[in-house]
Each structure stands twice: as C-alpha cells, then as structure tokens.
Amino acid sequence: MRVSAFSGSKWGQLFFVPLAGLLFSVAVFTFWRINQWEWEERKMSAGDYTIARVEDPKTRSDTLERHIRKTCETLRFPEDGARKAMAHMHYDDDRKVIYCFIPKVASTSWKRVWLRMTNRIKPNQNATTMSRYAVHVNLPVLAADRNAEEKLRTYRKFMVVRHPFERVLSAYRDKLEGEYENPGYSFHKQVGKRIQMKYRGATYREGHNVTFAEFIRFISEAGRGTEEQRNEHWLPMHELCQPCAVRYDFISKYENLKEDADYLLQWLGLTDLVDGFPAADNRTFHASRLDPKYLGQLSHSNIMAFHAKHLADFLLFNYTFT
Asked: Where is pLDDT greater, at 179 or 306?
C-alpha cells in the first residue's frame, strides 16, 4: 500500500484542509451552474418564468434523472461502472425489474418486498418478522447471473437515495453507537477497534466507545480508503449504484419514502401481493443532519472533509450541504 508523506502528520492536516476548502468551493460553483442550466431549460419549456412545484413521484424522479444526466456530463463521470453496480442489484425475472439497494436507505424494507415478490418465502410467512440478517442473505445479486448484462440493459431499474449526512449518521447510530452486534459481522470489533487504535493508540471496550467525530474523520480520509472505510453502509451512494453508467427508470428519495414506495408498488404490480410498504423494524434510527448532539461534535475540518468525500453524492442527487 502506498502511503503519502503527508499521511497522519501535521503537514497532512495543513495540506488537506485548504484542499477540502477548494473542492467545496468548486462544488458550490458547479451546483449553482448546473441548477442555472436547469432553470434556463425549464423556462424554455414552460415559456415563462413560472415553474410549477414538482409533486407526483414520477415527475420528481424524471426531474432528478435529468439533473443526474447533466451532472454526469458536466463533471465527466466515467460511464463504465455498470458491472460494479451489479453487486448491489437484486432482480426479478418474472417482472423484469432490477432494484439497486443502498444500505441505510430503506433497503431492508425493500428486500422484504423482494422476498415476497420473488416467492423466496412461503405464502403464509410474514416477511416483516424475519431477522434483518436473514433478509439480507436470502436474495441473489445480478452480478452472479450469467445473463447479467442483457438483463441490466433490458429490465426496468430503480434505486433509492438519501441525504448523505443523514445516511452516515444513521449508519453510525445503528452499527457503532449502540450495543447491537450483527450476527454476520461485528462492526465494533472490525471497525470500532480500528478507529480507536488509529486515533487513540489503544482500544476500549472492544470498539464500543467510538465518537461520531472519530467516525466521520475515519470515513472521510482522502484517498480510496481501507476495506473498513469503504464499508457499503457509508460508501458514497454513487459508487454503489453508478447512476452515470446505469440509466434508472425511477429514482426515489428517502425524504419522500411513503409516497414513492406506494407509487413503486403499483409500478411493480404488487398492490395485490403486498399489503403496503413494510414499516421499518424497531431498530430504525431516525437521523437528522441538524441534530446538535452529533453535528456539534464535528470540527470545521471534519465537516469539510466529509463534504469533499461525498461531494459527488451531493451534486448528483441534488442535495444541499446544509
């Protein structure tokens, strides 16, 4: 592994903060320019300066999809990442549809729907009572299918996104703040202990005492990052679903979850099979990016580093930095 001469030193900190500031400034300008183009396009299509509020799910999705295409083009995103996304795609051959799942964005609830629609559970079995671990290990991914490329090209596709900060805050509260241990992977031992050793020089309570500031600092380090830093629960969303390489038919936002889910259940033809979108389990962690308990722990450099790391998500999915 190649290590920068600046890594871990005071010079690295002096170098990175201005760099993060520069990236943030470029991002703000790019965000303004893209939205200016979209404003001009809407004026031309509307014929005046009045823009109707986007209300229905399909219109919201189409508007976001056009924004993504413009952003991909403006920022010269590579278009060869489709195969990477296949590892995060579930598919249904009967309905010819693909779902790209992103952890901490209602993925457990959507996978419960997928279990029912693909007949992977018995007709009388209640998917909502299955453990989260069982839900996540019982569905095949497109990458393992021998006709993956053809299905990706011809099947309908959808994904769900969330504000980047709220998503990682939810991941922290779920995986590191509490005492819960995932049956298949101990986040405290595998990630928490590594964070403690990196920033404290020693471990404490088997990784159960990581602060939110330490977590943000760890996942926001510049560069590709380690396996723990690139865990799917906080890896930037665009790296998981590759929206510049894959054209999605519907892109939902967690902020409109109920309305979008109802629309998607109709779109998928599941209203007779599924009795509404499954409610989140009792371990769901509501996360507000403005919560002073967590935001108040972060320094200026923490915030700038996080925005630099997740810059593409903010720009692509049209989220504000505040």
From this structure: 306
CB-based contact 312:236 (threshold 8 Å): yes
Q: Which of 64, 61, 75 is nearest to 33 (CA)?
A: 75
Please, which residues bridge with residue 250 across strands? 158
Short-list 31, 34, 2, 4, CA closest to 19: 4
**Segment among 26-30, 135-139, 224-228 with least mean pLDDT:** 26-30
Among 148, 4, 2, 170, CA closest to 86? 148
d(CA 215, CA 72): 29
Per-residue confidence band for 103, with pLDDT thresholds at 50, 70 and 90: very high
Q: How many helices (H) and strands (E) would you count in the chain?
A: 15, 4
The closest of 10, 62, 5 to 38, measured between CA atoms, is: 62
- CA neighbor of 312 nearest in space, from 2, 34, 11: 34
β pairing state of 89-92 and 97-100: antiparallel
Query: CA-to-CA distance for 284 and 293, rounded, in angstroms?
Result: 18
Tell me the CA end-to-end span of the chain in Å, nearest whole number. 35
Exposure of 175 in the CB half-sphere (CA atoms within 13 A): 24
